[in-house]
Structure formats: C-alpha cells, structure tokens
C-alpha cells in the first residue's frame, strides 16, 4: 500500500475497501520552536532524518552510522555514542537507555516513515549489499550493482531505502565470482581439527548461514572437548572471517540463573550476525534453556526499552556435554531445531598443520567458501556422530556401547531399531527421538512402513 496525503480509497482483495489518511503531523510538528529551544531534536532532524539516514527493516529501527558506512541497530551502544555526538551531549551516563530515552523514541518514530527491505539471497560486505547467484557448475556470482552507500542513501521508486548494508562483514574486498574451494588455505588450516569432512562442512554452513540473507534461522554450534582440542582455534577463525559482525559474550552467559538475558549480552546479540563464547563450563553448570532460546530463537530481545529481532547465531566452546535427562527442555523441539553438538578431536594439538593465515584475503576467500556450502545445502550438514552427540549429550558413550556408526546405507530395520535403543537410553518414545533427529538433520530421518528411525546407525547386537 502506498502512502499519500489526503483521503484515498484503496482496493485490497484481502481487506476490502480501506479509507485512510496519512498523518503528516509526524513529519511536520504542529508546534515549532526557535533554533535554541529545539536544538537537540533539531540536530537529529538535520543530521539524520532530513538526510534519509533513518529507516526500519521489519521490526527493527536502523540509523546510518557515518563512522562505519553501514546501518546500525538503534539499540547499539555504538550508535548511542554517535547520537550523543550529534546532539553535543557530553555528560550522558553509561546507561544510554535512560539518558537518551526521549531521543531514541523520537528516532524510532522517524524510522517508521522510512522502510527498507533486505534483498533475498544477498550478503552485506563492507559498504555494499551484494546479491549472490549460484551457476549450474557451482560457481558463485556476486552482483555488485548496488553502489557504495552515498549520502543521502539512494531511495528506490517506492521511496524505500535501497542502499542498505546491515551488520556487514568488514572485509575491504568485495568478491565478483568464486569457484569452490577457492584458495582454500583456511580450509587446510582447520580441517585437521575435525574427525571427518562433514564436521568441517557443519562449521562452514554455520558461518555461511549467518551472512546469507534471508537467514534461514539462527543456529547454535556447541564445540565439545578438553583443552587443546581446537575449540578456540575454530572460534578464532570464525571471528576473523566474520570480522565486524561477530561479537563475544561472557563465558557464563549460557549458564546464568534466571530467565533474563543481561542487557550487555542482548546488545551484542542484536548488533551482530554471530556471537562466540570461548569457554562455557558445563561440568558444574547446565545450559539455561530459556536464555538459549531467547538468544537464538529469532524472537524479540530487549535492550533497555528497545525490542529488537534476534537473528544471531552462536558458537560455544564447552568442556563437557549436558545430560539430556537433567532437564526435559533440552530434548524439546525448540532446542533440537536450533542446536548441534560437535565433538572435537582430542589430539588436535598434536596434529601438524599450517601456520595461521595472517592475510585478510584468505579469510575473505574462506567466507566465500562458507557461502557456497550454505547455498549448496538448505539445511546444515551434520555427521552421524554429531547427531548422536546432540541427541545424547553426556550419555553418548552409553549410546556408542549399544550402537555403531556406519558409513554405508542402513536398512529401515536398523534405523528403527537404533531409534528404539536411543529411546530407551533417553527414557522417551522412539518416535520422539526420530523426530528430534529430523529437526537436527532431516538427512538422518527415516519414515517407513515399520515406523520412524535414524540413518547411519546399527545396533551392535
């Protein structure tokens, strides 16, 4: 529906005849003041609103941040500091929510009048949003027709903001084409850390999923293993690959008590595409499922009084797995559809591998490889052992005493029997176990005439 001043009848088949009037009062206040009295609100109008530097995407408000040439979520502390500079406020406290609340509400109303739409199958790199296409031979083409963000940003014919780079990866090179695996130096660097090539594909899909818009859904990757198993090494590569849109959350975030995500953590989540946690202690603490769902559930998450859409994936390094029987919520559909648990190689520190790359072009190359894996697979590729680790948690050893992981195709009888054995181990129905496996990876799910089961496993006896 287009906006217009005055009264108009708009024909809409779903809603019938609608009579509406555009409220121009939002654009032109009925009461005006002199330059001294409206200096701060006026400064916002002159510096941001009048230059079309505010917009709304979905339920979130964004303001163009000139220091990074990208659009920044209104709940970001970085933006709050910039707003203080625009209005020449030098004495704002660290609680920006209270200090700037009336100005934030004012900007949010202005954002509502300027709408923007993300471009399907696109990636924000630097100051550009580039469209991504996969050719029949598997090569990627990056359409860079979207120009560098100019001031003011370009508006399309409908009045929407067209040049929109939200939570961009801040590599200074924008790809034009890519053939998998590219140079592959990062792939060679980290591949020895994983038991099989599917686990490597899991990590790469996880990275690609958080940068390709529209995001299918945020995912949580739990890296399990003792010290020296390559968890931190993997996370460091993720940070370098997603530089600019990857934040760090405190180690105890996922095990805090209560049901509220700390505001500082919420700000990281709404401002980034990926959040990493270097050391979650799950030996003595359990994951707070409510916090996990709030962070990774594509729900609204609050930063002060601002509610924002959380579309941030998580990568968590942990020293142990959870006992799925410690809380029934762990095996719920909401958790199973958004978490994958991967066991790292215990002897990773003893494996000889290349030195860590220092050239940022290598990380840009790896980013393209991750985008390629994401566009090749509509769902995260998950190895059978990772599927078993996700389902069984700390009980995986007991599961492996009764089941064997095989590479060959399994029969329907083996698949159903495997689900039955896991159902007994997890004290639940076999059908629920099979359905949980489907939520984690549909490739492992079997539905046949004798029931539902899990591929890739056979009973030992």
Tell me what you see in this structure.
There is one protein chain. The protein is of the alpha+beta class. It folds into 3 domains: 7-112, no CATH class; 185-381, Rossmann fold (3-Layer(aba) Sandwich); 395-459, no CATH class. The chain contains 15 helices and 20 strands. The chain has helices at residues 39-49, 77-86, 96-99, 101-112, 185-190, 197-211, 231-241, 263-271, 289-296, 333-336, 360-376, 384-392, 396-402, 412-425, 430-440; strands spanning 7-12, 16-21, 54-57, 60-65, 70-73, 122-125, 128-134, 140-143, 177-178, 220-224, 246-248, 274-280, 300-303, 306-309, 313-318, 339-343, 403-405, 445-448, 451-454, 457-459. Helix 1 (39-49) runs parallel beside helix 4, helix 6 (197-211) packs across helix 11 and helix 14 packs across helix 15 (430-440).
Keywords for this entry:
single chain; 461 residues; alpha+beta; four-stranded antiparallel β-sheet; globular; disordered N terminus
Quick summary of this structure?
This protein has 461 residues and is of the alpha+beta class. The chain contains 15 helices and 20 strands. The strands form 7 sheets. It has a 5-stranded parallel beta sheet, with helices on both faces. A 4-stranded antiparallel beta sheet has the order 6-7-8-9. The protein has a 3-stranded antiparallel beta sheet with strand order 3-4-5, with helices on one face.
Give the helices and strands, then pairings.
Elements: E1 7-12, E2 16-21, H1 39-49, E3 54-57, E4 60-65, E5 70-73, H2 77-86, H3 96-99, H4 101-112, E6 122-125, E7 128-134, E8 140-143, E9 177-178, H5 185-190, H6 197-211, E10 220-224, H7 231-241, E11 246-248, H8 263-271, E12 274-280, H9 289-296, E13 300-303, E14 306-309, E15 313-318, H10 333-336, E16 339-343, H11 360-376, H12 384-392, H13 396-402, E17 403-405, H14 412-425, H15 430-440, E18 445-448, E19 451-454, E20 457-459
